[in-house]
Amino acid sequence: MLGLRRKAMIAPSGQPIDHDAETMRLQLLGDPNLMAQIEQAQPEFASAARNDPARFAELLRQTRSQQQAAELAAKEELSLLNADPFDVEAQRKIEERIRQQAVLDNMEHAIEYSPESFGRVTMLYIDAEVNGTKVKAFVDSGAQQTISE
């Protein structure tokens, strides 16, 4: 039987690098727009992506761990809320969760189907002449989709 193993990548610090983290780091480095967004939102991530692959992998592991812990805590809280269906306070909290989820769903729908609502739209007007009359003309590309950068 033949077993295949990936060759472990080693950071300058001597620590092995997680392949998924390294792939993500290289994608960040290759996309200046994404890197600019990360720089604004998570400067420590951006710095680690540029200068310290092992630190980037560690930050990514920490973030994943925090997300998993938050998901587990939310599931446990929901289980406790569902334990007594006649508890008025628990029902209020469940109702609030449902309302918050509806808001998030509506936001996702809006971002998916109306992305122009979340960005700046620049209209193009030009000077034109129609039948000898000077007018300002609006240029319509006829695009059926919004292209966001």
Note down, in words, how this protein is organized.
This protein is α+β, with helices and mostly antiparallel strands. It is 59% helix and 12% strand. It contains five helices and four strands, in the order E-E-H-H-H-H-H-E-E. A hairpin with a 5-residue loop joins strand 1 and strand 2. The longest helix has 31 residues. The protein is flat. The N terminus is likely disordered.
Offer a few descriptive terms.
single chain; two-stranded antiparallel sheet; alpha+beta; 4 strands; disordered N terminus; 59% helix; 149 residues
In short:
This protein has 149 residues and is an alpha+beta fold. It has 5 helices and 4 strands, in the order E-E-H-H-H-H-H-E-E. The strands form 2 sheets. Strands 1-2 form a two-stranded antiparallel sheet. A two-stranded antiparallel ribbon has the order 3-4.
